[in-house]
Structures are given as C-alpha cells and as structure tokens.
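Quick check before the chapter quiz. The format below is the same one you will see on the exam, so make sure you can read both the input and the output lines.
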Amino acid sequence: MPGRRPLLLVAVLACLTGAITACGKDERLGQGSSNAPRPAVGQTGESGGGGGGGDEESDAPPFSVFATKNTTRVGGSDPVANAAAIAQATYPGAGPRAVTLVDTGSWQDGVAAAVLMSAPVRAPILLTDDGDVPQPTGDALDALDPRGSARLRGAQVVRVGDAAEPDDLRAIKPGGDSVFETAQRIDRLSTTARGKPSESVVVAPADRPAFAAPAAGWAAKSGDSVLWVRRDEVPAATRAALTSHQQPDIYLLGPESAVSAATEDELRKLGTVTRIEGPNPVANAIAFARYQKGRFGWGVVDPGHGLVFASQRRPLDAVAAAPLSATGSYGPLLLIDDGDRLPGLDEAYLLDIQPGYERDAVRGVYNHGWLIGDEQAISQRVQARIDELLQIVPVREAPPAAGAGQRDTN
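Here is the expected output.
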C-alpha cells in the first residue's frame, strides 16, 4: 500500500545507525550472529560503528530527530558513513551478490559505477578512502557478505579506479587510466552483465559535479551508463564507448556553460542527442526529475513518489544515495545549494507535486523524502520544511456552477 515501505526502511535504518538501543542485537537482520557495529548517525568515515549495541552508551541523538513523518535522514557526516548505512538499508536481509567499491578520490568513478546497482548485477556502492578500507565500509562488507555474482564471473566485489582491495573477497577491476577510460570499462562490464548495450546513455560534464550528480540515481535505476565529456571535448574513450552502443539515444545533462554546443554537435555524430538542462545545478536536477521521453526519464510531475535530497557541494553523497533511487520508493535526486535554506526552485517543485485528498487521506498517494548527510549538509529546519511540503493535504473542490451536475427528474 502507498506509504508503507518508507516506514519499514525507517525501522531498518534505526537499527543500522544504532539510534534505538532495542535494535542493538548480535544479529545481522536474518544473516546470523555478528558483533559488527553499525554506522551511527553523524559518524565519519574514520569512526567506528557503534552507537546502539546492548547497554553501550551512544552519543548519537534519538532517531526521531532525524526521521519525520515524511522524511528519513541518513545522517552520516561524510559519504563513507552514508554509503555504508544506505547499502545495509537497501539489503536488510539476504545480502547482494556483489558490492562495488569506489575510492573517495573520484566522484566521477562513483557516478559511473552506479549503473552496477541496476539489474541484473544489483551491486550497492561502498567507499574506500585513499586506498584504505574505513571501518564503516569494512563493517558493511562483513554484514552484507556478498555471495558472488555469476554475471561478474563469480566476483563478490567490483573495484573501481583506486578503490582498495578487501581481504578474502573475490574481486574484479574494470581498470582505466582516467575517469573517461574507467567509465568506458564500467560501461563494457555492464553491457557484458546485461547481455547487450543499453539503448540510452547519459553524458555529463566531468568537471562539473553538481550538474552531473543526478545521473547516479538514474543509472542505478535504469541501467543506462554514464559517460564523461569535457566542456569542449569528447574524449576518445567516450567516443569508443558510444560507438559500441551503435547510435544510442544520448541524453546530455547540463547547460552550455557546462558542455558547449560544439561538444553537443560532436556527440550528434555518435547518436541522437537530447540536452536536459537548467541554468544552475538545482534547476538542472529538477529538469531531470521532470523529464520523460518514452522509457527514459523519471517523469515525476505528479504526486506519489520517492525523492532524494543531497547537498550539491557533496557529490559523493549522491553516489552513496544511488541505491535509494533503484529500490524502495525509488526517486530522483534533488539538490540543496545551502544547507540552511531550501532553494525556492525546490520549494516550488515540491508544491507542484504535493499530494492531496478529497475525502480520506488513507486512500491518497504519498511522497517520501530521503535526506543524505548531517546538519552541515542539510539543516533540521530545511528537513522540517521538506516534510511539510511532502505532506498529503486536503483538497477542496470548487462549488459547481449553478445548474451544473443536476439531474433532470422530469
């Protein structure tokens, strides 16, 4: 029924963050016994887990501070912790067959790797840091216990770029000497796993993270690969990847200030190009959320959807959140440009898609928002405003005109 899945995930995240001590058991949600700590709300990638086991005290605030009736906050203070919590919320029971590891040194690798969260691989993303495996990532790997994917020749882990190699897990590495080549190799791996190339491809600017970040969630949902260009250049690796798709539908994300008209013309030689744009990152993300053409695009122009909110200053939070766009209530990424203020464009968009009911709210549809990051990324005041705009509200019908709708009983 509408609106119930987010409530279940709230409970899962509460257990994962350890904010409710009753959840602190030596059980991995159906995967046997373990003492592996869970990432706590507000922790960093350098922190341990903890915050909720048995009688241990926790500095984490109560989960109700971070979850409201229409929003759920994944409140890590950095993307490492957020990715660990989201991966475990996405797989609260039986673990995935594979996990993707991306190093924090390359948000581009993370956005491109999000496509591996789509079917048939379904690999959530975890983050390593400067070649090391932070404790939240290691704990999440232990808890997820990937079984190995036949689509990846039995690999349990896909190591992207400079990601660390975890102990005792079978890993494959797509390779690549640049973000352009790595995206090409990820695209090839995704094509091999699917058995055919995707019909659509997203192309985004490699040096404008705020414009490119929304591509991660869409890739995770759709299986459409993300490839990179410079503002005035289509790199050779991107050309080769697009050629392998044999004249695909190319969706160019960002305005001409991010990707020039000349680069768009070059892309037209390799496929059919549609530019999805807004003058700034917030508007660009909304344009992508609204857009739909055939099977491509979110098409979120009405109530009844999931939404993901992240700071445009933290593109790796968008990478960490990609599995939320591919599971649960699904939904596109919207950006916050100032952690203390909801952008007016976001507010207008949320008002446009706010749910309403005429007689009984139980029979309505619902919106739900995932907020990624601590209060430095998105303040509680902004969370409260988002909650208000997601709330289903009564709708009063205008009174009928005189004589309208009356039955003639003669």
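If your answer matched, good. The longest helix spans residues 179-194.
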